[in-house]
Amino acid sequence: MTSDLTPVRPVHLDRSSPVPLYYQVATRLQELIEKGEIGVGARIENEVDLAERLGVSRPTTRRAIQYLVERGMLVRKRGVGTQVVHPKVRRPVELSSLYDDLVAGDRAPRTEVLDLKVIPASDAIATSLSLTPGTEVTWIERLRYAGGEPLALMHNAIPVDVLTVTEADLAAHGLYELLRRAGHVPRIATQVIGARSASAPEARILAEKRGASLLTMTRTAWDAAGKALEYGSHLYRASRYSFELNLSAG
Amino acid sequence: MTSDLTPVRPVHLDRSSPVPLYYQVATRLQELIEKGEIGVGARIENEVDLAERLGVSRPTTRRAIQYLVERGMLVRKRGVGTQVVHPKVRRPVELSSLYDDLVAGDRAPRTEVLDLKVIPASDAIATSLSLTPGTEVTWIERLRYAGGEPLALMHNAIPVDVLTVTEADLAAHGLYELLRRAGHVPRIATQVIGARSASAPEARILAEKRGASLLTMTRTAWDAAGKALEYGSHLYRASRYSFELNLSAG
DNA sequence: GTCAATACTTTGTCATGACAAACTGACTTG
DNA sequence: CAAGTCAGTTTGTCATGACAAAGTATTGAC
Question: Residue A65 belongs to what domain range?
Answer without folding.
Answer: 5-84
